Structures are given as structure tokens and as C-alpha cells.
Amino acid sequence: MIKGPFQTVIVGGGISGLATAHYLLKAGVTPLLLLEAAPYIGGKMRTRYLEGFIIEEGPNGFLDNKPHTLKMVEELGLDGELCPASPQSEKRYIFARRRLRPIPLSLPGFFLSPLLSPWGKARLMTEYFVKPAPPEADESLTQFATRRIGREALEALLDPMVAGVYAGNPDRVSLKSTFPTIYELEQRYGGLIKGMLALRREGRAQGGPSGPGGRLTSFRKGVSQLIEALGREIGERLVTRAQVISILKEEKGYLLETTVGAIRTRSLVLSTPAYGAGNILTSIAPELARELLKIPYAPISVVALVYKKEDTMRFPPNGFGFLVPRKAGLSILGCLWDSSIFPNRAPEGKVLLRVMIGGDRQPALAMESPEKLVGIARKDLALTMRISASPLLVQVFQHEKGIPQYVVGHSTRLKEIEKHLKGLPGLFLNSNAYRGIGLNDCVANSIETSNRVSEFLKDYK
Ligand SMILES: Cc1cc2nc3c(=O)[nH]c(=O)nc-3n(C[C@H](O)[C@H](O)[C@H](O)COP(=O)(O)OP(=O)(O)OC[C@H]3O[C@@H](n4cnc5c(N)ncnc54)[C@H](O)[C@@H]3O)c2cc1C
């Protein structure tokens, strides 16, 4: 029997909800309750331990170039368990002209690389002279890239990146909302080359041609270690198998209808996906619910395959992995070489690969049967890494509503959502559906949300 009323209830036990609870507890907000519909916490973050392998269902880790997750890890006393990616995982590949080709790590390397034709490279360099778009423009990645760097660079470099990282489609995702750093470089410095030169002068340059700055970082036993530490801290204030169905507005807060009974609270944080929040809010705020339900999600499937090391020797997976551009005509989005990134993920002599399938590029493919997905993964691994052997072990993880897509119009939709929230004091939305998808973004947004909840409760007294 859950007692109440609570100062705050958090709905959703993914990283966004758990981190919000961590910071609210730190701020002394009690009584607090976290409700999770599933029998386990973590949402998309879940590690499986199988026959000596450490296999991630979703995220592999976070980048260490932002302080938020690292700081929270320290606060949880978990810093001794951190596991940075191996130095060899600096090497990343793109499948181009029927071969895996390294993504150049330096400017001279870029000029020598066969990833772009001489014309494509020349077109990219003219970026210096392209005028910036007006700040209010909300372009798709395709519109932005064809205007600034040319179609060839879009297809060869940006398209595989957006598919690999966001399961996104460059024709649909908003540059401003999905890649705010690139948008700001153009707005602030007039262009990407100008911006990168200025940042270098200021000593603030980050990352390089191979991907976002920072090193991928996980935990000795995978990302579930972070989830478990947060779960332990929240303790009995966390209830699983507790789904929130709808809410009612009351004079002093909200009344939640849940599968574990009715619960009263002064403030409420919805850390569910946007469509989940939309369903919960339909009866008390139909217009807000409509906006939330419009945020699209891309399905994605992860096929984990284990091979004997000697069966992968025709293209040894030493590096981070590879991405596949749409125009290459393969079925997979890319492949992460997990046991090269984190050597403890597989026992000696074995190799663990994770293939990504579907996304907004081929949404229907992600929801094919597990057998078909394994077949697709094996066919494309034969074409890319020339692996013909049968895998020793396979696991398929399907995320039907995998990754929210910040499509063109996302920033306007967020403003609409904020407007509607003004009529619901004490109700907050915080998940990866709004202002950042990476784990660092989720933690940063959770810090901000917990500050806003604390402020609200202070004023309320
Ligand atoms: C395949 C894949 C790979 C990824 N790789 C990376 C990576 O390497 N690095 C990185 O930084 N990010 C990565 N991401 C993104 C990252 O995993 C997510 O952005 C993040 O985990 C989302 O956390 P969240 O808490 O916002 O949402 P979720 O994890 O979706 O959690 C939401 C929770 O709410 C619960 N819930 C829903 N409705 C209700 C309800 N009515 N009542 C109670 N509970 C409810 C759900 O059960 C769920 O547990 C990846 C994502 C995927 C899918």
C-alpha cells in the first residue's frame, strides 16, 4: 500500500527519471516516489550477461566531454567502476565504394581519403564562403548540408552519422534541434570552417572528423551498473510494475490513477517517452497531449553476434565500428565492434559485434522477425567485414519506439508544449523526447528539472 501525499512523484524509471530522483533527493525533496511500469528499471539502458559476454540492449555508454554524467557517477561513488573506451576505438569506418574505409582523423588525411571525390572535397571547402541562414530558419539536415557542404558530403558523411547515432533520416531531422552545436557554429561564426578555426584559436576545439568529441565511457559491467546504483539510492521510494494511467488536477496538486492504486502528489515529473506522457495527459490537457503524441519515434533493432576471433580475420574488428550510408544500398545502419571498444565485453578469443537495423531510414525492417534480422545482419557482415562463419551466439533486441526524432518544427512544438504547461503548475516533462537524446543530455535535463521542481515546491509552501 503506497502512502501519500508526496511532494513529488516521478513517472518513468529510465535514466531521465532516475537522475531526476537522484537530484531531488540531494536537494532534500521528500517524500518522493518513482513509478516504473516495467518489472525492471533503466528503460532503454539494460545490460545482459550471457556466457561471459556483456551485451548492451541499447546505449553503450556516454561521452566524457560533458561533465554531467561523470559528476553524477562520482556522487554515487561509482567512479572506480568507470570503463573508458580503448584507444584503438578512435578508428571508425564508413562503408563506401564496396569497402570499409577509415574516417580520416586529420585534415591531410581527409584530403587523401577516397570517401569524397576531388569535386566533393572542393565543394566542401567552398563552405567558407556560404552565407549563414537566418536564425529563425528551421532546416532539415539535408537542406542545411546541401546549402553549405554539398550533396556528396551529405550522402557520404552526414547521412551515415545521423542514421548511426540518432537512427534518423537527414530529410526529416531538424538541424537546429538535433545538432544544436552545428547550428550555433553557423549562427555565431558565419560557417562551419570559420567556426572551427575560431574555436581552435580560442583553444576550445572539440572532436574531429571522426565523430563527436569526447571518449565513450561505460562501466566495468556495462551501463546497468549506473542504473543499479541509482536504484539502490532511491530504494523503497521506487516501485516497479506501477503504470500511471491518467491524472486529475486537484486544488493542491495531482491525483494519479495507477495500476498500484490512486496516489496524490503536489508536483509531478513525467519521465516517460512523449507518447506515454501524451496518453497520461489526454483527459486533463487534450491539446498538450496532441502535441506530445506528434513527436515521432524511430524503431531500431540491435542484433548482437558473437564470433570466434579467427572467423573475423579478413577484416579484423579493431576500432569503434562502421556506418553505412543510405546510398550504399545495404540493409544495416552500421555495426559497433563492442569487444574492441571495451575488451572485457567478450572472453579471450571471441568477438562481440552489435549491428543496428531500421531507424527512420527503414522503419519496417526494424520490426521484422528476430530470425530475419539475424539473416540481414549476417548478409551485410559478409559484404562489409567478409565474415562467412556462423555466429556462436546471437541476441536480438527490438526497440519499437526506439529513438525520438527531432524533426523540422520540433523547436516550435516545444514552445507550444511550454505554453500548455503553464496551465498545469507543478507538472514537468523530462525525458529524451525534448532537449537531447544522449545520456549526458538526459542527465543535464534532469538536473534542470529537479531545480525547477525544488523552486516550485519552495514557492508553494
Ligand atoms: C539502440 C539504442 C542505442 C543507444 N545508444 C546510445 C549511446 O551509446 N549513448 C547515448 O548517450 N545514448 C544512446 N541512446 C539513447 C539513450 O539510450 C536514451 O536517450 C536514454 O536511455 C533515454 O532515457 P529516458 O529515461 O529519457 O527514456 P526511457 O529509457 O525510454 O525510459 C522511459 C521509462 O518510462 C517508463 N514508462 C513509460 N510509460 C510509463 C507509465 N505510464 N507509467 C510508468 N512508467 C512508464 C518506461 O517503461 C521506461 O522505463 C541509444 C538508444 C537506443 C534505443
Account of the protein in words:
This protein is of the alpha/beta class and 461 residues long. The protein has three domains: 6-45 and 223-295 and 406-460, FAD/NAD(P)-binding domain, CATH 3.50.50.60; 62-88 and 297-404, Protoporphyrinogen oxidase, mitochondrial, domain 2 (Polyamine Oxidase, Chain A, domain 2); 106-201, protoporphyrinogen ix oxidase, domain 3 (Orthogonal Bundle). Helix content is 36%, strand content 23%. The chain has helices at 15-26, 67-75, 107-112, 118-125, 141-148, 151-166, 175-178, 180-189, 192-201, 224-234, 274-281, 286-293, 338-341, 363-366, 370-384, 410-421, 439-460; strands at residues 6-11, 32-35, 47-50, 53-56, 62-63, 82-84, 92-96, 99-102, 216-219, 238-239, 244-250, 253-258, 261-270, 297-308, 321-323, 332-336, 350-358, 393-404, 427-429. Strands 1, 2, 10, 11, 12, 13 and 19 form a seven-stranded mixed β-sheet that branches. Helix 1 (15-26) links the parallel strand 1 (6-11) and strand 2. Helix 2 crosses helix 17 (439-460), helix 11 (274-281) runs antiparallel to helix 12 (286-293) and helix 12 packs antiparallel against helix 16. The longest helix has 22 residues, at 439-460. It binds flavin-adenine dinucleotide. Flavin-adenine dinucleotide (FAD) binds at residues 11-17, 35-38, 43-45, 58-62, 243-244, 271-273, 276, 280, 300, 302, 399, 402-403, 431-432, 437-439, 442.
